[in-house]
Write a structure and sequence with these properties.
single chain; 227 residues; alpha/beta; Spore Coat Polysaccharide Biosynthesis Protein SpsA, Chain A; seven-stranded mixed β-sheet; 7 helices
Length: 227
């Protein structure tokens, strides 16, 4: 499975974790490479010259938290640039963040839209502290590819067109197919830009996860909130 590990060039901890991620994925046979991510100082907004999704989280940050807005906008640009690559190369590929660690071989085949790779422990991350409904959530899974269950508790909550949709629990590591990448690119163009993990939702793509998860989490550097 071809993939890219996105990191922040010049950020010592990010570069260190990215190297750990690279070593762990290569150990299990993934064909991955390090890719320098977009940051507020390097973002070229004409790459995706779309307005923000009306009433979305990204729009709210633009109005209330302008510095965090540029960080989150950089994150969605990283994902959108990746989707372009998937479409251009016409093959499924893995998007991996610097704080992911591999613990299993890649899925042998996937023909859906979006496949989350760290499902088993995603809701246990500190970012969800205070959400007892998320921390206590459990569901049974079959080996291999599973659809996100209809009772999955992580839902889009802003008052936009996506309200009520199932959301991905972050963008730590996932596979997207050319079909899924095209859907996510078209959604950004049609509906506007949204925070990356809010943009990946069940209104835009068919959402699946792999069990048992071949990816776990390293220490969260919280770089999507502050650099």
């Amino acid at each position: 499975m071809k993939g890219q590990i996105v990191y922040i060039k010049g950020h010592d901890k990010s570069e260190e974790q990215a190297k750990q991620a690279l070593d762990s994925f290569q150990k299990y046979g993934w064909d991955v490479e390090l890719v320098k991510g977009v940051t507020p100082t390097t973002i070229y907004e004409r790459d995706f010259d779309y307005p923000d999704l009306p009433n979305g989280r990204l729009e709210s940050m633009r109005k209330n938290e302008p510095y965090k807005y540029l960080i989150k906008k950089s994150c969605i640009f990283n994902n959108l640039k990746f989707y372009n690559r998937v479409v251009e190369e016409n093959r499924p590929m893995a998007f991996i963040e610097h704080d992911a660690l591999c613990c299993g071989e890649p899925p042998t085949s996937f023909v859906g839209d979006f496949l989350f790779l760290a499902y088993d422990t995603a809701l246990k991350q500190s970012v969800f502290d205070g959400r007892s409904d998320l921390k206590s959530y459990k569901n049974s899974s079959s080996l291999g590819v599973n659809a996100f269950p209809s009772n999955y508790p992580l839902r889009y909550y802003k008052d936009s067109i996506y309200k009520g949709a199932i959301m991905t629990p972050g963008t730590c590591a996932y596979i997207v197919t050319p079909r899924g990448a095209s859907k996510l690119l078209n959604a950004a163009k049609k509906n506007g830009l949204e925070q990356s993990d809010f943009h990946i939702n069940s209104m835009n793509v068919e959402m699946s996860y792999y069990y048992p998860s071949p990816v776990k989490y390293n220490i969260n550097l919280n770089t999507s909130h502050k650099l």
